[in-house]
Design brief:
Blueprint: E1 2-10, E2 13-18, E3 24-29, H1 35-45, E4 62-69, H2 76-81, E5 89-96, E6 102-106, E7 109-111, H3 113-123, E8 124-127, H4 129-135, H5 138-149, H6 152-199, H7 205-217, H8 219-234, H9 240-254, H10 259-288, H11 293-313, H12 318-384, E9 391-402, E10 405-414, E11 422-423, H13 424-427, H14 430-444, E12 452-456, H15 464-478, E13 483-486, H16 490-493, E14 498-505, E15 512-517, H17 520-532, H18 538-549
Helix pairs in contact: 4-14, 5-12, 6-12, 7-11, 8-10, 9-10, 12-14, 17-18
């Protein structure tokens, strides 16, 4: 519900403020005074595109701000999804700068225009040509049936089942596609796996083989160097160990002359033991190392085989080859189990399809049960609105399951006696469409939480009893929903709870529009002027009193 509206620097409006009541609000005024301009400004709050041409003062910023009570609409989820602060009172603001830049805010948080559109259509409903075109759309007509039949519970259950079906369908189709690729690659994958399995690689093997190859390739040179080292250490006459033994005896004798020499003797003894151990190790290496050309060839062949597979697969380590072998083994395993897996996925798909269809049928049955009553309610209301020969029928056909279920509906209409009904979008005139849409909203007022309804001269082309019937219905809607009606008929304008008057102020160099809430006396005069012109007679004033009292 709109509780407060301010418009500044927009078209003919320099500054305008109104606080409509929660019921039926009437707006009247002279032609061109700015009633439709107000709707343009409100449209900006609903996300319509902005234009700098609308600036009253081209050097100043245009600001339109609306305050709404949003508690009845269940919008907390929307605010959370859009990361906006939620409060039962919501402030929407739109700004247009002289440079043409447009900005939108919800509770002082900048938002995208698309976000504003989604929120705006929930809070305000302007009866317009666009909506008239919308009435002819199949999806909109189906939504009317759902609102009339109160299918929200069934829709939710169907939507959940439909999403589960789509998920199962996607899983089956994805695995089937993967299966085709796997079958194409199956033989090659098995061949590659057999190659890798035959190699029987272990982590760290390349480093060991390369070290072994180096040893085998230089075995003769290594053994010669070992013999040379041992010879220098252990020669019978000139070996280093014999000389070092002499040093040891000398240090032993020195040890008796003080602690310092004893420590030197111990250090030398340790070094001598280490050198003797090195000699023993060299001897063992000499015994172990063999000049084995056959083993060298085997090592080279093994390394060559590993290098070739690394190059083939673009890998640098044996760990990469081992990981590749695991991956290929998994693919081969999956292919071996693919048919069983596809059978399981297909079974899940069929169960999901069956569950979806069960919910679709429940939803469809509730829709079908409402078609005739909805059509009859529309027909009776259209008769009350002056189309006494109106005929309405709703045809339904079954479709493949989609987001809306298995139903497609189309409303058929004829305004004239003896004329066959045809699809609504093809036969109704502008005035008939307007009354048809009004009848729809009248019915929906009892079914859903409607946004603020704004009717722009919906009473055009009607008069007398039909106008009175129209405004009675409007009053009925206004018992549950806020209604703002721009009217040119006195019998309609007289029935509002609040009456706003839009007028031009020519007192300054540039004309601008103003709006004011009329007092009872001002309202009487305005209704009388709507009946008889600028200078209403006594009888016109009496007629105005009767309309206001009625």
């Amino acid at each position: 519900m709109l509780t407060h509206l301010t418009i500044s620097n927009y078209a003919l409006i320099r500054q305008l403020e109104m606080m409509p009541s929660k019921g039926l609000n009437m707006i009247t005024g002279e032609t061109g005074a700015g009633k439709s301009i107000m709707l343009g400004a409100i449209g900006l709050l609903m996300g319509n595109r902005a234009d700098t041409k609308v600036l009253y003062d081209e050097e100043a910023k245009c600001v339109i701000e609306g305050t709404f009570f949003v508690a009845p609409y269940g919008l907390k989820w929307f605010f959370e999804e859009e990361e906006l602060d939620y409060d039962e009172t919501c402030i929407i603001r739109r700004e247009i700068s002289p440079s043409g830049k447009s900005r939108a805010f919800v509770n002082d948080t900048p938002v995208r225009l698309e976000t504003l559109k989604q929120l705006g259509k929930t809070l305000m409903d302007i009866h317009s040509q666009h909506e008239t075109l919308l009435l002819g759309a199949a999806s909109y007509q189906l939504s009317l049936i759902d609102n009339y039949a109160q299918t929200s519970k069934e829709q939710l259950q169907y939507t959940q089942a439909y999403k589960t079906f789509l998920s199962a369908k996607k899983a089956y189709e994805r695995r089937s596609k993967e299966g085709l690729e796997m079958r194409k690659e199956a033989d090659y994958n098995k061949f590659q796996l057999e190659e890798l399995d035959a190699l029987n690689l272990v982590a760290g093997e390349i480093a060991e083989l390369e070290e072994q190859q180096s040893l085998l390739e230089h075995a003769e040179e290594i053994k010669a160097k070992i013999h040379e080292a041992i010879q220098f250490l252990d020669h019978e006459e000139f070996g280093a160990l014999k000389s070092l033994a002499t040093v040891a005896h000398a240090l032993q004798d020195l040890g008796t002359f003080g602690k310092h020499f004893s420590e030197l003797q111990e250090r030398f003894h340790s070094a001598l033991v280490e050198i003797q151990d090195i000699q023993d190790s060299l001897a063992k290496e000499d015994d172990t190392l063999e000049v084995d050309f056959e083993k060298l060839d085997q090592t080279r062949e093994r390394l060559t085989a590993i290098y070739q597979l690394q190059k083939k697969h673009g890998l640098d380590t044996e760990e990469g080859l081992i990981q590749l072998a695991h991956e290929l083994a998994e693919k081969v395993f999956q292919l071996d189990n693919l048919e069983e897996e596809l059978a399981q996925l297909n079974q899940e798909l069929e169960l999901a399809r069956e569950a979806m269809m069960q919910q679709a049928i429940l939803l469809s049955e509730k829709r079908k049960a409402s078609l005739a009553p909805f059509a009859e309610d529309l027909r009776l209301l259209l008769q009350q609105l002056g189309m006494e020969n109106a005929q309405v029928s709703i045809e339904r056909r079954e479709t493949d399951p989609d987001t809306n279920g298995i139903d497609a509906v189309e409303i058929y209409f004829s305004a004239n006696k003896g004329v066959k009904t045809q699809p609504l979008g093809q036969v109704a005139s502008g005035g008939e469409f307007a009354r048809f849409m009004f009848a729809v909203k009248y019915i929906m007022a009892d079914k859903v939480a409607l946004p603020t309804l704004i009717f722009d001269e919906i009473d055009t082309g009607i008069s007398g009893e039909i106008a009175l019937q129209l405004v009675k219905m409007m009053q009925q809607i206004a018992t549950k929903h806020q209604v703002i009606c721009i009217s040119h008929l006195p019998q309609v304008a007289a029935k509002g709870e609040n009456h706003y008057f839009v007028y031009k102020d020519n007192s300054q160099e540039k004309t601008f529009s103003k709006i004011k809430l009329l007092s009872p006396e001002e309202r009487l005069t305005e209704i009388a002027q709507m009946i008889a012109g600028a200078n209403p007679s006594a009888s016109a004033l009496e007629s105005a009193k009767e309309l206001l009292a009625g």
